[in-house]
Amino acid sequence: MNTIPELTHYIKNFNLKDGSSGNHGYDRVLLQLFGFLGHGKSSFINTCKYVLEDGDYQNYSNSKGSQGGDTKSRITFPLTDTMTLVDNRGCAVMNDYETAEILAQLANLLPLDKGVDWSRGFGLTGRIVEAEKFVKSSDLIYPIFVYSANNKLADEEIPELKTLLETARDLTEIFPVVVLTHKTSGKLRDMKDKFENMGVEQIFALENFTPEDHIKTRGRHEDVLKFFCEVIRDIQFRLKRMGDPEETRQERKKKVLKFIHDREVKKVEEQLEMQRMKEEKMKRDMEEMQRMKEEKMKRELEEMQRMKEQKMKRDTEEMQRKIEEGNKKTNNNNNNSCKAS
């Protein structure tokens, strides 16, 4: 199974029931794409469909090439009877709010093919509860993290990204596969090393087809087909170890709800800590103001005392001078009286 037609046939005819242990109650694989805005998720979807259908290039995901970053819904793109790509809403920055939204999408707790309006506080919890009747427990979740090799991954960003990938692994019980897009535009080896150091087990690099660049080449086709073959192998391995679909979904929901709860508790604790620090600062400022006021009063009193003492000294000296002058005058008068007599 080495030729492009053989690989394509294998992928298109993959079925969850093919394994010796059956499908364990799962009837569809959701290939959950997640990542940052503008890193090529939508273009990757177009690329996958272009390769598997082997027809004319179509802009299925309405990708805008290098501009990207428009997806604000969970849109499904069926690839085969078994596998469906899901273009989840991407995140702009890495924080607890956007992470929770990503996890809720990854866990398949929000409706498919509907808008994703992100919310703060416990708003996401309410949306998860409302979506309960729309989600399917029989969907097997497979996480795929899409990242552009053209992006400069700073060292200070790695810990948060590693935490996101590990949380996605704990949630789905599958370590996310990483797809590096724009493989010829950046330092690919350096980027792979960084993801490997985060614990990523499978990394695939490819160049997306775009409306401007969709010339068919054997290498680009094989990159995509080999990616799907590895994904299928991973799914087959995981399927043998999957539990009851409904119980598994409920466990995912508990984990996401706990993440939201812990996030809000952390937020309250941070607010209380900020308030405590603010009050302590106010106390220190008040104490400093009081100290400065007391020092000022002390200086003023000392200055008043100094001026008082100087005045007393001047007055004493003046009195002493007058006494001396009076005595001198008296002596002169006495001397004159003696001479006259």
* Gyration radius from CA atoms, angstroms: 39 Å
Q: Helical stretch count?
A: 8
- Main-sheet strand order equals 2-3-1-4-5-6
Strand content of the residues, in percent? 5-15%
- In the CATH scheme, the class would be Alpha Beta
Query: Uncertain segments of ≥5 residues (pLDDT<50)?
Result: 65-69
Strand-pairing-aware structural class: alpha/beta
Give a count of the beta strands, DSSP E runs of length 2 or more: 6
Task: Describe the global form.
Answer: elongated
Tell me the helix content: 40-55%
- The chain-level mean pLDDT equals 87
Largest sheet: 6 strands, mixed
CATH architectural name? 3-Layer(aba) Sandwich
Region (Disordered): 278-341
Biased composition (Basic and acidic residues): 278-328
Biased composition (Low complexity): 329-341
Quick take:
By secondary structure, the chain is of the alpha/beta class. Helices cover 54% and strands 10% of the residues.
